[in-house]
């Protein structure tokens, strides 16, 4: 045996065993150290976390938790002179308190089942919901839902002002404090008190705060009378009052209502039969678009405040990240100070003139009628003014237009309709009749330099409620010819190389199946400039400018840069030049667009307030308006000069041309520029203009688009109202005019070509001197000479082109028409004539040298109709010279 080899192997194994034991000890020591380190780290982290949480909780607001209700600090609104104009307070912001006993069980259960299913069991916070929400955040699952209980939401709205933190850290701190206070609140306040305070606090859309007012707002009944289907409708609003509004967002609300009813069934609050009955209920037919809070208000908000409320809420959402509920709560109970741009003196003048009956030749009335009838068989039918229109049609009254000469006539017609409609056994369960003065008007005036809206009026007649239809800002009407400036002429001058003198041929103009026409009856005018197109509002000039020079895509782009937000993808067409757009425009945006031109081409977004201070006097929002350049200053001046000329009385250079469109709006002693607009059927009439101080726009028309016939007030009264308002506002102000910028120069051109004039030709147009001085952006003065005028030799007797037989000749100036233009225009009257038809060759002797042949040396005899040829050029001789 080899004992030496075995000994060596035993020694190696022993050494390996010792190494493994040593390695194991080292590894175990490392793990022990790592465990101790981790344990120590965890203890330290936990201590730090607990310390942080304790610090956050210790810094929680010191409130009397047993009396927690929403804060109700009044918000004060000031005009530009520092006067208090409105006080926005909880009691006047559409909130009423309901007791728990008034709340239907279905209403409470609808909110609990959807918002907080374990509300009656948890201690103020729901750990399962919190973990689910955290898991959703970590996994990016947006459908996981939130973790806030109803108790937490009440704490957030009442203690934390709706939860308006700007950073994640602030939100996390508030969330810890919210949990702490929710547990504390649950210990001292009953569940019934918590749910009652919550339902009295929430925003339910349309300026409706709390379920008691919402029941009246949407169903015209007491909250205690709500049905199951109605309860589910209200519970579906609160998550997003704008999206799930049962009036404007009916489809979304109906989908949410279905989900809530399913939750109620799944949680045992209702039976399947009750769920099905609620779903079958046509609940939305009963919803009434009324505003109960404003009806109860003795002094409804002005149109300015109506728009201010909208602007403030929008600004809070955009600049502070608030939700609708947070913004509403802050506005109506946050104790804010809102400093507006409203000028009290200007507002008074606007309101007086818009409501002065002497400024209108008609005072007719439209109606909004609602009638609900339960029939003998138990069915219910709802009627409106549309049924009244059908009634008149059935009666053969085809002339009925929905307007009445006085209120008594409207009431008598309704009585007649009811006598016709109601049958024996019918029971009226609801009826309302509202009469509105027609034609209506709206007015906006702003400082073009600052964007500050100084006054606004949203309708003629007494304002009966707050937050109602505002025709100045929230209705969209066709802008007519005012759009020529924004979509055709502005981009043509600013970008496309055109000048005020650039001409387009005014004649029959057809694109596809659409033939365009002018508003006047004096016939087509032939060559007409952009200046003519503005002063005389020439439709075909505007359309040809858009189509041939600008293109609709660029026209839409410019309109949007001017602040017009209502254009759609269907508006890229030639009718854009004439304001024929899908949705229409608001007076506020149209006025803001023209203020851009008045401000040298710089757009400033219209603003209604300058700043908002919170309850402690700190600046919450500093409302500096948005600005951007739209036009060169030279373009703005050129447009201003042409629009100023439209307000002077003049007639187009023509044998029978149209008159300028806006002398009725001219302000005595003050420079002004503006553009009128009238839709083709006289449904809408506009005038938007400006002075060196203010830009103002007026719209007039009937709410239901009836034509402005003579019986309905005519189509020109609005310009006089604009003039009266602006005249009063500018009394005592000096007139600085519209200074010409350094970027503009002048040159003499021919108005029939837009090119440099030819003395002795353009000056002797048959209708007068066609030469005038025009403004140009520097570098755009034309270098070519007029080629639309031509001087020709004519027969002295027939004034036609001479033949060799015409004994005497003279010269005259004629128009050269565009190729292919054969229609009758004012220019075609002066086009080049044919050859003389008076003189013939019978026994006529042509003296030597009388016809322009260099080799003529003897009298020539010509047969009738013969036209001599030029031997040198081998072509007919035409006896005129082209200048």
UniProtKB/TrEMBL annotation:
Pfam families: Transgly, Transpeptidase
One Gene Ontology biological process: cell wall organization
Transmembrane segments: 26-53
Reaction(s) this enzyme catalyzes, per UniProt: Preferential cleavage: (Ac)2-L-Lys-D-Ala-|-D-Ala. Also transpeptidation of peptidyl-alanyl moieties that are N-acyl substituents of D-alanine; [GlcNAc-(1->4)-Mur2Ac(oyl-L-Ala-gamma-D-Glu-L-Lys-D-Ala-D-Ala)](n)-di-trans,octa-cis-undecaprenyl diphosphate + beta-D-GlcNAc-(1->4)-Mur2Ac(oyl-L-Ala-gamma-D-Glu-L-Lys-D-Ala-D-Ala)-di-trans,octa-cis-undecaprenyl diphosphate = [GlcNAc-(1->4)-Mur2Ac(oyl-L-Ala-gamma-D-Glu-L-Lys-D-Ala-D-Ala)](n+1)-di-trans,octa-cis-undecaprenyl diphosphate + di-trans,octa-cis-undecaprenyl diphosphate + H(+)
Domain Penicillin-binding protein transpeptidase: 442-726
Topology class, membrane: Single-pass type II membrane protein
Keywords recorded for this protein, A-Z: Antibiotic resistance, Carboxypeptidase, Cell shape, Cell wall biogenesis/degradation, Glycosyltransferase, Hydrolase, Membrane, Multifunctional enzyme, Peptidoglycan synthesis, Protease, Signal-anchor, Transferase, Transmembrane, Transmembrane helix
Chief site of localization: membrane
A GO term for molecular function: serine-type D-Ala-D-Ala carboxypeptidase activity
Family the UniProt entry places it in: In the C-terminal section; belongs to the transpeptidase family. In the N-terminal section; belongs to the glycosyltransferase 51 family.
Record protein name field: Penicillin-binding protein 1A
Protein's organism: Lacrimispora xylanisolvens
């Amino acid at each position: 045996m080899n004992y030496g080899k075995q000994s060596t192997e035993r020694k190696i194994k022993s050494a390996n065993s010792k190494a493994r034991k040593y390695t194991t000890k080292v590894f175990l020591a490392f793990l022990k150290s790592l465990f101790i380190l981790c344990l120590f780290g965890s203890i330290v982290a936990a201590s730090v976390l607990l310390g942080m949480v304790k610090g956050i909780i210790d810094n929680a607001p010191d409130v009397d938790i047993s009396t927690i209700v929403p804060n109700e600090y009044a918000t004060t609104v000031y005009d530009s002179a520092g006067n208090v104009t409105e006080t926005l307070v909880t009691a006047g912001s559409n909130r009423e308190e309901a007791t728990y006993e008034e709340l239907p069980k279905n209403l409470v259960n609808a909110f609990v089942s959807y918002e907080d299913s374990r509300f009656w069991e948890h201690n103020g916070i729901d750990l399962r919901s919190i973990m689910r929400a955290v898991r959703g955040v970590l996994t990016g699952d947006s459908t996981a839902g939130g973790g806030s209980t109803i108790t937490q939401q009440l704490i957030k709205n009442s203690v934390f002002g709706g939860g308006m933190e700007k950073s994640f850290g602030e939100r996390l701190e508030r969330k810890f404090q919210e949990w702490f206070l929710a547990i504390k609140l649950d210990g001292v306040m009953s569940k019934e008190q918590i749910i009652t305070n919550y339902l009295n606090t929430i925003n339910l859309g349309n300026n409706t705060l709390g379920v008691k007012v919402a029941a009246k707002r949407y169903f015209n009944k007491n909250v205690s009378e709500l049905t199951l289907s109605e309860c589910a409708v209200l519970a579906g609003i609160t998550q997003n009052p704008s999206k799930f509004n049962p009036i404007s967002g009916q489809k979304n609300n109906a989908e949410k209502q279905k989900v809530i009813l399913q939750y109620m069934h799944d949680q045992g609050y209702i039976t399947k039969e009750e769920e099905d009955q609620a779903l079958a209920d046509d609940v939305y037919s009963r919803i009434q678009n009324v505003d109960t809070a404003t009806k109860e208000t003795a002094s409804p908000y002005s149109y300015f405040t109506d728009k201010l409320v909208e602007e403030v809420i929008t600004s809070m959402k955009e600049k502070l990240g608030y939700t609708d509920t947070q913004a509403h709560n802050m506005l109506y109970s946050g104790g804010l100070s809102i400093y507006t741009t409203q000028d009290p003196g200007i507002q008074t003048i606007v309101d007086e003139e818009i409501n002065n009956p002497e400024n209108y030749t008609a005072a007719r009335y439209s109606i909004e009628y609602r009638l609900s009838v339960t029939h003998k068989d138990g069915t219910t039918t709802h009627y409106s003014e549309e049924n009244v229109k059908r009634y008149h049609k059935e009666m053969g009254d085809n002339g009925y237009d929905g307007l009445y000469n006085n209120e008594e006539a409207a009431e008598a017609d309704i009585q007649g309709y009811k006598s016709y409609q109601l049958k024996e056994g019918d029971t009226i369960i609801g009826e309302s009749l509202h009469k509105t003065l027609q034609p209506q008007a709206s007015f906006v005036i702003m400082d073009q330099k600052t964007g500050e809206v100084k006054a606004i009026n949203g309708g003629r007649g007494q304002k009966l409620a707050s937050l109602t239809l505002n025709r100045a800002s929230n209705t969209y009407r066709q802008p007519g010819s005012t759009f020529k400036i924004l979509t055709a002429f502005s981009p043509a001058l600013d970008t496309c190389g055109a000048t005020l003198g650039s001409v387009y041929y005014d004649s029959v103009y057809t694109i596809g199946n659409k033939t365009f026409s002018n508003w006047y009856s004096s016939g087509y005018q032939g060559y007409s400039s952009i200046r003519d197109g503005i002063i005389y509002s020439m439709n075909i000039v505007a359309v040809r400018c858009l189509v041939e020079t600008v293109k609709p895509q660029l026209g839409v782009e410019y309109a949007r840069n001017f602040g017009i937000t209502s254009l759609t993808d269907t508006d890229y067409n030639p009718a854009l030049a004439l304001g024929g757009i899908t949705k229409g425009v608001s007076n506020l945006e149209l006025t803001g667009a023209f203020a851009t031109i008045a401000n040298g081409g710089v757009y400033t977004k219209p603003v209604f307030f300058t700043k908002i201070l919170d309850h402690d006097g700190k600046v919450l929002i500093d409302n500096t308006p948005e600005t951007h350049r739209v036009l060169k200053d030279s373009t703005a001046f050129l447009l201003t000069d042409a629009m100023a000329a439209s307000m002077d009385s003049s007639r187009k250079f023509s044998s029978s041309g149209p008159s300028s469109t806006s002398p009725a709006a001219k302000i005595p002693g003050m420079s002004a520029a503006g553009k009128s607009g009238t839709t083709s059927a006289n449904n809408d009439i506009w005038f938007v203009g400006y002075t060196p101080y203010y830009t103002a726009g007026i719209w007039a028309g009937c709410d239901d688009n009836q034509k402005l016939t003579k019986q309905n007030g005519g189509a020109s009264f609005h310009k006089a109202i604009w003039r009266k308002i602006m005249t009063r506002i500018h009394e005592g102000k000096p007139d600085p005019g519209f200074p010409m910028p350094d970027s503009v120069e002048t040159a003499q051109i021919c108005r029939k070509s837009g090119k440099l004039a030819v003395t002795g030709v353009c000056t002797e147009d048959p209708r007068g001197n066609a030469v005038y001085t025009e403004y140009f952006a520097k570098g755009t003065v034309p270098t070519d000479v007029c080629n639309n005028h031509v001087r020709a030799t004519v027969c002295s007797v027939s004034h036609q082109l001479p033949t060799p037989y015409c004994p005497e000749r003279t010269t005259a100036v004629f128009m050269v028409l565009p190729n292919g233009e054969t229609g009758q225009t004012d220019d075609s009257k002066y086009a080049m004539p044919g050859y003389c038809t008076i003189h013939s060759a019978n026994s006529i002797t042509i003296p030597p040298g009388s016809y322009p042949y260099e080799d003529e040396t003897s009298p020539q005899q010509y047969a009738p109709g013969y036209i001599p040829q030029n031997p040198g050029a081998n072509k007919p001789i035409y006896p005129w010279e082209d200048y």
